Amino acid sequence: MSRDRTVATGHHDLLAVYLNDHLAGATAGLAxxxxxxxxxxxxxxxxxxxxxxxxxxxDRASLRSLLADLQVRPxxxxxxxxxxxxxxxxxxxxxxxxRPSPLRPLVxxxxxxxxxxxxxxGWRTLRELAxxxxxxxxxRLDGLIARADRQAETLEELHREAAREVFTGARP
Length: 172
Known about the structure:
Number of strands: 0
CATH class: Mainly Alpha
Number of domains: 1
CATH architecture: Up-down Bundle
Mean pLDDT: 87
Low-confidence stretches: 1-5
Distance between the termini: 55 Å
CATH topology: Ferritin
Largest sheet: none
Helix content: over 70%
Radius of gyration: 18 Å
Number of helices: 5
Strand content: under 5%
Oligomer: single chain
Order of helices and strands: HHHHH
């Protein structure tokens, strides 16, 4: 295999940083999915998000497994910072201090959508790298990409519905 088709030794450190950044994002994203699901309890959106939360937990587990396969150690301080950052982000009042803002579902769905798109980009990067790194399972990555794309489509639809409801009062 030619040098340009393998992960160069010096690039393993870059890959470790990249994977740990995505693991931190996955950690914060899972916390946000769970928190948003609880906040919207009793709504049709919460039911969809509950299923997606389980998938996101599986995706995070897949990422942790890939780190282990690639002999990349998780950076626990970064994971803690991600959890703290997500919790602090939940304190934003969206224009209301005492009662929940009607913007909350819309803003939460936007955050979830951004996270899922970032996750998909990460899976695509690893899929590209799989040509040079035999420890990356191509079929598994293809499945993770497909699931992330489906999650993004679902979140887009939920977001459109939330926007219509917030700004026009129209329910789906």
